Amino acid sequence: MTRSGGVSTGPAAGLQCGYGADDDPQAVRANRRLAVETVLPGAELVSVHQIHSPDVAVVEEPWGDDERPRADALVTRRPGVLLGIVTADCAPVLLADRAAGVIGAAHAGWRGAHGGVIENTVEAMVALGAERPRIAAAVGPCIAQPSYEVDASFRAQFGDEEARFFAPGKAGRWQFDLPGYILMRLQSAGIGTAHALGLDTYADPERFYSYRRATHRGEATYGRLISLVGMAR
């Protein structure tokens, strides 16, 4: 979803859905309810306390916002649940095997993607009955290569086989293709189809929150977008 609508005000005005944005918690809860009612009315929203890890939580029963486990992906086969991921330049990755009734959602910044959160999410879905060729995935709005400048120490963490995701930038700098890198990891995990929306969070302040943009502008805080996937009962 974009930042349009919602009840938050100030620097993170709009549909701000993250508890770490120095926002009024009541506004965050109201925004989350608005998002749920837009996507799957009556569903229960389940999210995690995101830590840029490769860890996946399996949702057997919904938990409250105050009970969120520390992880960066969720999977379930339970209808009537919406899996929610919040982002502000990192990529939300939503996955589904419709035939098996298994869904997943992952928070994939460079660190999580590099550490295996994509593969771990697919593995967790397979453990619930999904089949890799039937899994479809979408990579949502995230920072795009023209906006993602990194230094040589960042580049050094990736092997030569991943060089195609780095374009030369200014002296000693590179431009990293995060969505392209995530698509490669999804394809390597053997899933059936994967597509990226091609929407740059950094370059579109009217529609998206962006951690890097807020940092460059010296803003006090930044909002979080929410991405949701679920199954009707």
Global shape: globular
Task: Kindly state the percentage of residues in helix.
Answer: 10-25%
Q: Enumerate the spans where pLDDT stays under 50 for 5 or more consecutive residues.
A: none
CATH class: Alpha Beta
Q: How would you write the strand order of the largest sheet? A: 2-3-6-5-7-11
Measured by DSSP, the beta-strand proportion falls in 15-25%
Indicate the CATH architecture: 4-Layer Sandwich
DSSP summary: helix tally = 6
Return the domain count: 1
Description:
- The protein has about 230 residues and is of the alpha/beta class.
- The protein has one domain (about 10-145, about 200-230): CNF1/YfiH-like putative cysteine hydrolases (4-Layer Sandwich).
- The chain is about 25% helix and about 25% strand.
- The chain has six helices and twelve strands.
- The chain has helices spanning about 25-40, 110-115, 115-125, 150-155, 180-190, 210-215; strands at about 45, 55-60, 75, 80-85, 90-95, 100-110, 135-140, 150, 165-170, 175, 195, 225-230.
- The strands form three sheets. A six-stranded mixed beta sheet has the order 2-3-6-5-7-11. Strands 1-4-12 form a three-stranded mixed beta sheet.
- The protein starts with about 25 loop residues before the first helix and ends with a strand.
